[in-house]
Design goal:
By secondary structure, the protein is α+β, with helices and mostly antiparallel strands. The chain has 2 domains: 136 residues, Fructose-1,6-Bisphosphatase, subunit A, domain 1 (Fructose-1,6-Bisphosphatase, Chain A, domain 1), CATH 3.30.540; 103 residues, 3-Layer(aba) Sandwich (D-Maltodextrin-Binding Protein, domain 2), CATH 3.40.190. The chain has 9 helices and 15 strands. The chain is globular and about 50 Å long. The termini are far apart.
Length: 254
């Protein structure tokens, strides 16, 4: 199976927007919050949005595979896999905070080649395809030049999760060494780095649907997405986004 990257990437943009716009039917409204087996929250908005996105993919590309946070895998043997997170930042969504996103990553032969991060409540769309650069709302975007932690703004999803994964010491080092830290987290934090509005984002824990678009977006924006060992991958369960000039000093903190 071959991939028409331009066609598939454009479809990913369209489908992320379709899904993201559906979440607005529930955003800042009343709805029931349930708990998954891992105690993380889930809502009807998460489930409905992913179902809508999956149906769009199946309609356009019936031979492709799909893996989503809420509804599992479909056609896992396909060389083209669509990785979906209908609402990344469900806790923000539940509390009416607009820093949640709808995510799509496309993998071809296990390699990330397309990434879309859409923040529907803010109407911000950051997307990139392999070799084609990165854009924010259609305009080229790049990471900000920053080569020293003492000049960097540092984002993370929260300040407690690192402790659960024995990374609190590293987190505290980053907080102390950076000029500014804020918790504009989840994929929105990585998008802030890709668009030059922050310098460093660290997630102590990521599932593949959280990470799937990030490697492509960061590379095409001139930066790096890697794990705490410096591996440029979406598979190892944690992630750092920053400029390539900064990554050496960041990794020294782990």
């Amino acid at each position: 199976m071959n991939i028409d990257l331009k066609k598939h990437h454009q479809a990913a943009i369209e489908i992320a927007c379709i899904g993201g716009k559906h979440t607005l039917n529930y955003f800042q409204k009343e709805f029931k919050v349930e708990r998954k087996d891992d105690t993380s929250p889930v809502t009807i908005a998460d489930r409905e949005t992913e179902s809508i996105m999956r149906e769009e993919i199946k309609k356009r590309f019936p031979d492709h595979g799909i893996l989503g946070e809420e509804h599992g895998g479909h056609n896992p043997e396909s060389e083209v896999q669509w990785i979906l997170d209908p609402i990344d930042g469900t806790k923000s969504f539940i509390h009416g905070v607009p820093f949640y996103t709808t995510l799509i990553g496309i993998l071809y032969k296990d390699e990330p080649v397309s990434g879309v991060i859409y923040a529907p409540a803010l109407d911000e769309l950051c997307e990139a395809a392999k070799g084609k650069g990165a854009r924010l709302n259609g305009e080229a975007c790049m990471v900000r030049r920053c080569s020293s932690l003492n000049e960097a703004s540092f984002l993370t999803t929260d300040v407690t999760t690192a402790r659960e994964f024995n990374l609190d010491a590293s987190m505290q080092k980053l907080i102390k060494k950076t000029r500014l830290h804020r918790t504009w987290g989840d994929a929105y934090g990585h998008m802030m780095v890709a668009t030059g509005r922050a310098d460093l984002m660290f997630d102590p824990v990521l599932n593949i649907w959280d990470a799937a678009p990030l490697l492509t977006v960061m590379r095409e924006a001139g930066g790096i997405f890697c794990d705490i060992n410096g591996n440029e991958t979406i598979q190892t369960g944690n992630g750092i986004s920053c400029s390539r000039e900064l990554i050496g000093e960041v990794l020294e903190q782990f």
